[in-house]
Every structure is written in structure tokens, then in C-alpha cells.
Amino acid sequence: MSSIAERLQGVRATLPKGITLVAVSKYHSEEEIGEAYAAGQRDFGENHAQELARKAQTLPNDIRWHFIGHLQTNKVKLIMPYVSLIHAVDSWHLLSEINKQALRLERNVDVLLQLHVAEEETKFGLTPDEYDELLSQQPWRELSAVRIRGVMAMATHTDDEAQIAEEFEKVDTIFKQSKANHFADMPHFDLRSYGMSDDYPIALRHGSNIVRIGTAIFGPRQYQKTSE
Ligand SMILES: *Cc1c(COP(=O)(O)O)cnc(C)c1O
Fold first, then answer.
1. Average pLDDT in the 203-213 region?
2. Alpha-carbon span 79 to 101, nearest angstrom
3. Which residue, among 18, 31, 17, has the nearest Cα to 225 in the 3D structure?
4. How far is the CA of 104 from the centre of ligand 1 (A)?
5. Most CB atoms within 10 A, among 154, 156, 159, 164?
6. Average pLDDT over residues 213-220
């Protein structure tokens, strides 16, 4: 069996220059994260607030923690001291709360808006219309501690590669349109987070520059490991 360091190397070898690899470490132990860290990995992704806070307190300070899951407003406070990029913001309410908690800690925070393009009903995220509405109708420019850096999305879980490609292409198009319409004066609006273990090669062909990869690096997750 290959080690975490070997699998990490294997994934890295498939990524073009300029692509950020977020190693998704949810449900994996501090020890496993330590192995990836020792192999040079610094960006890690978590989707539970308590788990991120716990790991951030024990692991090295130069790790960049990505919150990639659905974030409840009452959990923003918990991750704010540690988080580097919040990927899945999908409401004005959440965006305002993130700004409020960042101001409280006198820090700035980067976020992505999550787009819902998959077929599944259960996936979170803004529909393209809701996304447009948020950007054209809400006073997000007044949130002084928050920078909207780009978009995040998940494709439908399917073997149909054409469908996945179509969904990622849609995200790419929406990203470019909104960049022209709302962020023309903001070069920092430059991040596209899509692609996971099974579909990241397709995501990279459709404009992604951040991939979030768990299983291909850490192996299968053991959900019973944590009580969250
Ligand atoms: C778990 C998770 C991933 C990683 O999934 P893998 O299939 O293990 O690579 C990526 N993005 C999000 C939002 C996740 O929750």
C-alpha cells in the first residue's frame, strides 16, 4: 500500500503549475495530516467547524485552513481565528456574519461564493439567479473585512463525464460574466474552486484553479472516527 506522502506526490504530479491543491483532511487524524505536512503540503480543507478549530490548535501555525463545507452562521465565530479561505458562502446573511466576526478579531478574510449547478437537490449553493441577485442587490462592497475572491462548486456525483464537464463549464462562464460585471476593478477576484478526487481532471480543463482532494491523498474516510 502506498503512503500518504506517495499519494500526495502522485496527485501533485498531475497538476499544472499555478493550481492550488487543498488536501481535504476531514475525518482524518492530526497524525495523517502531519504526514502530508511533512511532505510539504500546507493547504488543508475541513468541513466541520469544531474539527477545524481542534486541528488548527494542535497543528503547525503555517497551515492554511480552508473551510469547504456548509457553514452555519453560529459556527463562524469558531473558525474565524484559524480560517484562511471560506469556500462555500451561499447567502447574504452568512456573508454579513463572516464580516462581523472578522471585524471583531480585527482581521480580514477571503471567501468564495458557492454556486449550485449540480442536479442533486441536496447540494447547497446559490442558483445562478440568486448569485446574480446577491451581487447586484446586496451592499457587499461595504463589508470592509471580507474579500470575495471567486466561486466554488460541486458537480453532480455521476459517471457521466459530459454532464460533469457541462456543469463545470457553466461555473466557469458564470465566473467570467460576474468578473466583468461586478469585479472589473478587483483583480483579486480570481479563484475557482471545483474538482475533487473523482472529477478534478475534468475541472482543470474547465477553468478550475483550486482543487479539493481528499480520498486520493488520505484514502477512504472513516466516519465513525469523530462524534461530529
Ligand atoms: C469531502 C469533500 C471534498 C473531497 O472529496 P474527495 O472525493 O474525498 O476528494 C471536496 N469538496 C468538498 C466540499 C467536500 O466536502
1. 98
2. 10
3. 31
4. 30
5. 154
6. 97
- Residue-wise pLDDT for 41-54, tens only, equals 999 999 999 999 99
Which residue bears the cell 477553468? 207
**DSSP assignment, residue 140?**
G
Q: Tell me the pLDDT tens digit for each residue of 1-14.
A: 689 999 999 999 99
Backbone angles phi, psi at 20, to 5 degrees: -85, 130
Asked if residues 211 and 20 have their Cβ atoms less than 8 Å apart, the reply is yes
Q: Is the CB of 24 under 6 A from ligand 1?
A: yes
The cell numbers describing 18, all together, are 499555478
Give the three-state DSSP class for 134: helix
* Cβ of 213 below 6 Å from ligand 1: yes
Which residues 6+ apart lie within 8 Å of 107 measured at CB? 80, 145
Which residue type occupies 122? T
HSE-up (13 A, CA, CB side) for residue 57: 9
Q: CA 49, CA 70: separation in Å to the nearest integer?
A: 10
